[in-house]
Each structure stands twice: as structure tokens, then as C-alpha cells.
């Protein structure tokens, strides 16, 4: 593994711990989004082919959509309360 993969992996581990340690839901979403970016980057760096890039793009788009759906739901819950 090269240095960039190791650095991205360390950032992903830190973000993973922060997701579980943080009490605020909004901050958890931010760390989860950062974790998703790290995973997409690791997929692209590990699979060095066009298919790896495509898998990375698909993962990034789907994780972004799910994060946006969660954020929208949390915002709607605040309006109801």
C-alpha cells in the first residue's frame, strides 16, 4: 500500500470512531459523510482500473443520497417537534 492509502485509511478510522463517540446527530452525519468519501477514495485507489473508478463513483453517489435523505428526515423531525 502506498502512503496516500494509509493516510486515507487513518482518516477513515478516526471518522469511524467519531461517529460512535459524538452525541450530536448533525455532527454524526458530517463524520459519516467524511467516512463515505474516504471509502470511495480507497475503492478508487485499491482497484486500479476503470471499473474501480466506476464502483467508487457509484458508491459515492449512493452514500451521498442516503446522507441527504437522513439529513432531510432529521430536519423534518425538528419541525414536527
* Global mean pLDDT: 83
Q: Count the helices. How many?
A: 3
Rounded to an integer in angstroms, the radius of gyration calculated over CA atoms is 15 Å
Q: Tell me about the biggest sheet? A: none
* Cα shape: flat
Low confidence ranges: none
Give me the strand/helix succession.
Answer: HHH
Strand content: under 5%
Distance between the termini: 49 Å
Question: Could you tell me the number of beta strands?
Answer: 0
Query: What helical percentage do the residues reach?
Result: over 70%
Structural class: mainly alpha
Attribute tags:
81 residues, 3 helices, flat, mainly alpha
Structural features, described:
- The chain has 81 residues and is mostly helical.
- 89% of the residues lie in helices and 0% in strands.
- The radius of gyration is 15 Å and the shape is flat.
- The termini are far apart.
Amino acid at each position: 500500500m502506498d502512503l496516500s492509502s494509509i493516510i486515507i485509511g487513518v482518516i477513515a478510522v478516526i471518522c469511524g470512531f467519531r461517529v460512535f463517540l459524538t452525541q450530536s446527530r448533525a455532527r454524526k452525519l458530517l463524520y459519516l459523510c467524511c467516512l463515505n468519501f474516504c471509502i470511495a477514495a480507497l475503492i478508487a485507489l485499491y482497484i486500479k482500473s476503470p471499473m474501480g473508478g466506476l464502483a467508487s463513483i457509484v458508491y459515492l453517489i449512493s452514500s451521498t443520497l442516503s446522507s441527504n435523505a437522513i439529513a432531510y428526515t432529521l430536519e423534518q423531525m425538528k419541525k414536527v417537534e
